[in-house]
Amino acid sequence: MKTAIAAPQIKTAPPELEVINLTKRFGSFTALDQVSIKVTPGSFHALLGENGAGKSTLVKCIMGFYTPTSGEVLVDRQSRAIDSPKDAHHFGLGMVYQHFTSVPAMTVAENLVLSRYDSPQWINWKAEYDRLDAFMATSPFQIDLRTPISQLAAGQKQKLEILKQLYLNSRVLILDEPTSVLTPDEADEVLGLLREEVTAGHLSVLMISHKFREVMAFTDEVTVLRKGKLAGHGYVRDLTVDDMAHMMLGEKTEATPVEKVAIADPRPVLELKDLCADRDNGLPAVCSANLIVNSGEIVGIAGVSGNGQRELVEVLAGQRPRHSGDILVNGEPYQSTRKEMARHQVYTLPEEPLRNACVPHMSVAENMALRTFDCPPQARRGWLLSLSNIRRMAEGLVKVFSVKTPSVDTPVGHLSGGNVQRTVLARELSSTNINLLIAANPCFGLDFSAVDYIHSQILAARNRGVAVLLVSEDLDELLKLSDRIFVISGGELVYESPTAAADIKTLGHKMAGH
Ligand SMILES: Nc1ncnc2c1ncn2[C@@H]1O[C@H](COP(=O)(O)OP(=O)(O)OP(=O)(O)O)[C@@H](O)[C@H]1O
């Protein structure tokens, strides 16, 4: 019988990681073209690029998820065959993802032991806890080993993802947008602690990021990809944000900002009256929510993830039954059916669009047609589909919304995260008759030029008279876009203010549940 053996906890120096002329093709599409990058031991390296530039493909090739078409991965100057994450682990490489991978019902200790590659069949918990206590005492972050994951805040969960890699003795950490689910304070804390480990020479970090502020504050070097090719490299001390943006975009010009205009005769479009909804486990998620969104108004809902926002949006999108209360759209009772959505012109941008707003194995064109496939010109008599019209419409939207996809026939599940987001945005924002738009974290995972674009689209919709409910974990986004702002905490709307009069400190306190 195999018993648990604790992972070695010796702080060895990180190895040098180098990628030489790496090419990755998916069929006839070249996602990476002769890309080289070197992560020197004890450096904090940022990997930048627009959505679809090839960043995830590059790190997936390094970690052995993908087999490169050609090129080499060198660890300590020797070419290595890395065919799986387990091989990568063997060479000291570990990956931390955007989303948490821990099992919510298990404790921190159980998740750490579970993360090991030498999964034991029998665990001596007494000995395991002694070793875990010793590991935790010397690690850069401390988390109580006996706490279930479901009780951890987002920042602690992300710290645990990093701790897992340290526990596995990974010396080169590859982080894929590690702060996207964190508040700015949590992000600074996590990156600051990693920075200390890098400065002490215990770790190297290669971090995919869209946030220039974090790149400038915490990293030493940047490598930039553009359309699958190496577009630049440099030291952060020698570069400005403009330099990096220019490397990412080439000669493209920036979007002109959209100004808000005053709306005449606003009328209530969305009304929530004592709306209550439950979580999957039957416990209350949304408690007696009351709010009105008027035409030509953006109402923002701020809150730390897990405070009922997801369930609220799911109820409005028809993906979760309400427990009680009323929803009115244009003054009429609203049950969020597809028919009602079409009649009242309600559009939604839910979070995690690949899971909540797409059918991953269906093509980009089919996904773009999910709202309109049974209407002319995409269908005759409601059921006779015109595939050529569906493709033609998708080709137009791909151009307008700059979706990077090999073709409109590619399964949407094959697109990069940001391009899945753009596919859904194209479908939901392209109608000229939008009446109500419900958007949840619409810029999650998007590069800065895409964020500007989406913000200008949402503002332009508002200026046309669309009522917008914007649920976001990004307070800066809410302060920039919304006319009125609410805070949701513990499922209750605990604060409301016109955004111009909102006090940031009070917002922060309310978000933290005080
Ligand atoms: N399994 C796959 N099959 C076909 N094409 C793919 C596959 N995975 C990625 N691609 C394509 O490769 C390109 C690069 O994708 P990748 O996910 O590496 O981009 P990225 O820079 O990480 O983008 P983002 O910032 O949006 O996450 C995209 O055009 C994507 O559509």
Automatic annotation (TrEMBL):
Pfam families cross-referenced by the UniProt entry: ABC_tran
UniProt domain ABC transporter: residue ranges: 17-252, 270-514
Keyword Cytoplasm (UniProt): no
InterPro entries: AAA+_ATPase, ABC_carbohydrate_import_ATPase, ABC_transporter-like_ATP-bd, ABC_transporter-like_CS, P-loop_NTPase
GO terms of molecular function: ATP binding
PROSITE patterns in UniProt: ABC_TRANSPORTER_1, ABC_TRANSPORTER_2
Source organism, top-level taxon: Bacteria
Keywords, sorted A to Z: ATP-binding, Nucleotide-binding
Identification of the protein by name: ABC transporter ATP-binding protein
Taxonomic placement: Bacteria, Bacillati, Cyanobacteriota, Cyanophyceae, Leptolyngbyales
